[in-house]
Amino acid sequence: MNFIFLLTLFSLNSLIETCVRTIPPEEVYITSTELPTDKPNEPGEVTDAPVPNAPVTDAPVTDAPVTDAPITDAPNNQCTMCMVTPPTSNPTGTDFTSVEQAAAGDCKKTLVTCKRTDDQTCKKVSIQTSTSVLIEEADTKEASALLQCQNDGTYSFGTVTNIGQLSCVYDCASCSTCDISKLTLPMPVADTNFLTSDFTGVDGCKQTSVTCERTDDQKCMTVAVVGSNGPVSDDLASTTNDNTATAILTCQADGTYSSGPV
Question: Which domains does the chain have, with CATH numbers?
Answer without folding.
Answer: 78-171 (2.60.40), 176-258 (no CATH)
